[in-house]
Amino acid sequence: MDTPKMEIKAYDFRSPKKFAKEQLKTIESLHENLARNLSSMITGLTRSFCEIQITQVEKKRYSEYTNSLSDFALFTSFDLIPIDESIEVTLLLMTIHPEIAYFLIDKLMGGDGSGYNLIREFTEIEMLLFEKFLNKVGRQIEISWAKYLEIEAAIKATEMNPRIIQMLAPEDIVVVIDYKVTFEHFESPMKICLPAQALEMMMDRFTPKFAKSSNKKADDNRDEMQRTAVLNALKVAEVELKVVLDEIQLDLNDVLQLEINDLIPLTKRYDELVTVKLDDHPWYTAKLGETKFQKAVRIESLIDTEDV
After folding, report:
1. Coil, strand, or helix at residue 287?
2. Quick one: 172 and 273 in the same domain?
């Protein structure tokens, strides 16, 4: 009688498995939420297309993580500080490819984002500008984690060469989340690294069992924190304010024949109400005037968006 063949799998005792598949899926779900939040934030800041997707979630040694990084990558460590003081502070390490950083810096400075393909170290001014962006990233981390654990994310350090920093021991086990960041004209990698030992201590907070067993008060508190975090993020979001005196239609032929000093007749009187638009959406009516020798508008009423 033939004995059935047994499948033999390799096992690395230096890198033991600390997470079940379900737990890794929960970690992936959390960081998918972070990817969506970051995509929306970057799109709003740069007013250009941005999509962030997870490509893989895997467990490896810290030395393997650092060896896979680019020489000029921006390496930022965040302290994740739980509101519950019984839980220890842990690290979140984020590595951003130089192309992404140069693109964002160029856009934040009012450029068109074309100067992203650079191979050099960042200047002090560029680092200061990018740290302002990283503060916004920290806020998105807090929002994404709120469903699982109430935390504050504080920047601990930002460096240009991740290989010279040893935040963890080389043999320490970490969970690495690989992202693909896609803009209109290029795509680039981004990585997040979390120490496995700290995640293991928080494991009850990451499992579906924790979410189901939490009492209603705790759920309400987390929901309220998430709402507050979203509102705070919206308060600092930039919107375009535009005052429209009038809108008319012209034939293309008339437009092509326009010259300097030509007059375009409008349908409104100079003392009639004008429209104030927020991001091209009519929002208020207003009256033209002056204040301190400058043109100004005075808000008169709120436009009912259902009638627009």
Report:
1. strand
2. no
